[in-house]
Amino acid sequence: MSEGLLFLAEQACFDAFVTCYLQELGAGVWHRAESWRADRDAAWELRCEFVVELSLPCEGQRLALEVVYRSAVGRHRLGTARVQLGGRWRDADRLQVVLLLIRELYGRRGGADETARAHELELILRYVQSQQLMARYLAARAHDRRLDSDRFIDCEQSMLYGHWRHPTPKSRQGMTDWQHESFAPELKGRFQLHYFAAARALVAQQSATAQTTEEMLSRLLAADPPAQRALRAAQDRGEVLVPVHPLQVDWLLHQSHVRSWLADGLLRDVGRLGPRFTATSSVRTVYSEDAEWMVKLSIPVRITNSVRFNRRDELPAGVSMARLFAILGKRADFHCIADPAYLTLEGPGEGESGFELLLRENPFRRGADSGVYCVAALVQEALPHRASRLRTVLEGLALTEGRNVAEVSFDWLVRYVRCVIEPLLRLYDEHGIALEAHQQNSLVDLQAGYPRACQFRDNQGYYLSNQHRTRLVSLLPELLQRPELFFEDELIRERFAYYLLSNHLFAVVQRLGADGLLDEDVSLSVVKGRFAQLREELTGQGRQLLSGFLEQPRLPYKANLLTRVHDVDELTEPNEQAVYVRIDNPLTRPLRPLPRELEVA
How far apart are the C-alpha atoms of 267 and 361, rounded to whole Å? Predict the structure, then answer.
């Protein structure tokens, strides 16, 4: 592995961690670089416009960081660091800085107890592992032409840097070193699913389609003769073939209820069958170009905040929401990718058996898999000597149209807000349905270069407003049996503020600014102007939501670093509640006026 790629991973992980620290703790005093240097440390050769200084009282130190790019929405690019100890400023390497910040975080909690120390070590472990994995993925893919491809799966597998609003963006615990080659999306491995044959009495399933889940799963095996033989043998014995992720197999075989089923003849281990799948960006949802369905499976792997298993009580949500969206009808500018079927084995008690799976609609089959981008891939930082996907799209449009790239970027963002963000706001306003539309869950159709429509995926990301409960239940009475889908609007506004605004839209704003395509103030003016217009058009909960976006000086923000500090697994918490804080709202800060040539007509 080259030194350059190691440095790249180190820098990306450092920027992500410090970004979280600055935003979640509201930390840091900003200075003009030359002023700071003149007042404090004339020996520091600064190559930037700003320095941010942090006080670390628990460590008895001060920290100063070069800011190479200062972002209005919080995603800064950082340079070198200095630490003050005993009145003198000295160079500090990135790992030293991160360890100082971690010690400060736990020091502020007043925690020297064993639990706090264990959490501290856990965070350090995840940070180091995240950096190691990122470096490995970068080394494997740095010269891969597929990083520029617009195919669905190539975009899904191109996210080498991970989630920049998370302190350990590539942390994955539960995968051994050799398993990454097969199962990490970044390394593009392909694999068969592992099958068990289960007595029909154990099987619980539900489908919103004309077929049962069992029948849908059987169709995945249609082109594989050995799989067909195994399927017929299982059917002759009154069994159902149930796929699991290969990563899940060993975990299952160590569970007492699985061992009992195997011993009693209620379950047989059949082995790997069927077509080869490959991991999408979530790792646990798998895809094949020729399969009618993607499969979302449980895996015993902690990715960022949570172990990625399908919860039993969440399985029916996808079925109900598939039916609800079918009733509401199609929109030209929005599509919710359905999770219309699930299957599991009924374990002891009411908990999960480990066999929980969902089938997800696959609109990206061979021949129809180009031009739709996951937003996280679109706005990802470019590798050295390459352009980000978004920059490539915009410079291509500018060349085709013979226009200035800033003008094209401006028009592109206007359309993005209207075609991607606005449908989600209208869905909430008109029907009381909110979606957890963060970067990774949101897909944008750019087949014509400009945004045309958006798609959403995630059976764990639905929020139905209690104020719309009566109407929604009248449309789909089974929602009476899904109280876990309904929430108060105060909580929905909190989630919207983070997922749609901070995580998603502000990431587009930052990418445009960092790539030199459109100044962040200009982008924020576009967003602010369109939100103000839209607020006048909306009549339901969306109006109050937009008023908060436009007027609240501080916004709710999911604190991924503090969630890690407290060692919270949000998928196991009530309402999947991570730690939330409030951060300054970029839309309420003074913005420079738009240049005349970029004013919206």
Answer: 28
Q: How far is CA 277 from CA 296, 354, 455, in A?
A: 12, 20, 22
User: Alpha-carbon torsion 253, 256, 257, 260, what sign?
Assistant: positive
Please tell me whether residues 105 and 232 are part of one structural domain.
Answer: no
d(CA 89, CA 82): 6
Q: In total, how many domains does the chain have?
A: 3
User: How does strand 239-244 pair with strand 453-456?
Assistant: unpaired
Contacts of 471 (CB under 8 A, 6+ apart): 432
Residue 46 is predicted with a pLDDT of: 86
Q: Give the distance, in angstroms, between the CA of residue 11 and the centroid of all CA atoms in the same chain.
A: 20
Q: What is the pTM of this model?
A: 0.94
What range does the domain containing 292 cover? 174-361
Q: Where are the beta strands (DSSP E) in 117-266?
A: 172-173, 190-199, 203-207, 239-244
Those residues of the chain that have pLDDT short of 70 are: 1-3, 111-112, 569-577, 595-601
Same domain as 383, residue 520: yes
Percent of the chain at pLDDT > 90 equals: 84
DSSP state for residue 87 in the 8-state scheme: T
Token couple for 349 = 């008690």
Pairing of strands 462-465, 486-487: parallel
Query: Does 103 reside within a domain?
Result: yes
Place of tokens 């798998």: 286
CATH number of the structural domain spanning residue 431:
1.10.510.40
**What distances in angstroms separate CA 486 from CA 310, 472, 548, one per listed residue?**
19, 10, 21
Q: How would you list the strands of the sheet with 77-85, edge to edge?
A: 29-32, 50-56, 61-69, 77-85, 88-92
Residue with tokens 């998603």: 504
